[in-house]
Design brief:
single chain; about 240 residues; alpha/beta; 3-stranded antiparallel β-sheet; about 30% helix; 6-phosphogluconolactonase; Glc/Gal-6P_isomerase
């Protein structure tokens, strides 16, 4: 039986130093994956994490032709909608680096959310084939103020999904209601899961996720790779309430 990964905390003074160190970490890992098995299969998220990555990654050295970029979750909206996570990366990252459009795996907003989830499974399998759970090299995750991650919300039935690797959600408590998300078994099969959380406003939730003993556990607390690593990149204000730093 694999031992669940214990979180490795990386705490920096400011959100700016978090962003710099996070981006260096991602690039180092990308380059090592490319050297070892030829590609870097990574899932990204929206929010402040997207801002950090779009600001920091373009100036660093990597073979972008070997990247395969997926979305840990995506809102079921048009590509030009302000809520689209794809739009954020298209404008903030793909416009600055030679990341080919066909190596960025976006969800299809023009079909039902259920069909979009099914199509996304096919896209994941085109890069990570087989019948086993897909194993991403890295999943870059955000944590919401309610402790959600991906589009896996506290108390939602999707937290118990074990059959599908990608699932639709039609009743997200946070708008927009329709989304597509990786499921927990896939998240916990990654080689490396990474959270980035900054600001005093996140401090209480960071403490609850990392040190709390809530039942049922908050979604972000349930990210514990079974055969991989778990990193939390925090600034001092977000880490301020942790008892063991």
């Amino acid at each position: 039986l694999f031992k669940m990964a214990a979180p490795i905390l990386k705490i920096f003074d400011t959100d700016k130093t978090v962003a710099q160190n996070l981006c260096s970490f991602v690039i180092d890992r990308a380059n090592s994956c490319i050297n070892s098995h030829g590609i870097f299969a990574v899932g990204v998220s929206g929010g402040s994490l997207a801002k950090f990555l779009c600001q920091g990654l373009p100036s660093l050295e990597t073979d972008w032709s070997k990247w395969r970029l997926f979305f840990c979750d995506e809102r079921h909206v048009a590509f030009d909608d302000p809520d689209s996570t794809y739009k954020v990366y298209k404008e903030g990252l793909m416009s600055k680096v030679p990341l080919a459009e066909n190596h960025v795996f976006k969800t299809n907003p023009n079909v039902s959310v259920e069909d979009a989830a099914k199509e996304y499974i096919t896209k994941v399998r085109s890069v990570l084939p087989g019948d086993e759970l897909p194993r991403f090299d890295m999943l870059l995750l955000g944590m919401g103020p309610d402790g959600h991650t991906c589009s896996l919300f506290p108390g939602h039935p999707l937290l118990k999904e074990t059959e599908q690797i990608v699932a639709p959600i039609c009743d997200s408590p946070k708008p927009p209601p329709q989304r597509i998300t990786l499921t927990l078994p896939v998240v916990n099969n990654t080689r490396c899961a990474v959270f980035a959380s900054c600001g005093a406003g996140k401090a209480e939730m960071v403490k609850r996720v990392l040190e709390g003993s809530e039942e049922p556990p908050l979604p972000a607390s349930q990210v514990r790779p079974s055969n991989g690593e778990l990193y939390w990149f925090l600034d001092q204000p977000a880490a301020s309430l942790l008892s063991k730093k």
